[in-house]
Write a structure and sequence with these properties.
Distance between the termini: 31 Å
CATH class: Alpha Beta
Number of domains: 1
Number of helices: 2
CATH superfamily: protein ne1242 domain like
Strand order of the largest sheet: 1-2-3-4
Radius of gyration: 11 Å
Largest sheet: 4 strands, antiparallel
Order of helices and strands: EEEEEEHH
Shape: globular
Strand content: 25-35%
Number of strands: 6
Structural class: alpha+beta
Amino acid sequence: MAHHKEIFEDCEIEIKEDTNLLINGKEIDYEHDRDINKWSSRYLPYTRYDSLLEMARAIAQHTVEFSNAKE
């Protein structure tokens, strides 16, 4: 998935080169634990995701900053 772009929960999610994550044009910092192949972000601490896209969708759906984007 070298480049992926979608609209989810009224947010534009874009993943470039499998490493750069943007939600509504804002770059999202995250950590990738290569030992267990999980992704995490300060937006949803204490939760690890199986893919960068899964994490991006959770951020768009469950964080105040992005879940209110449609309002």
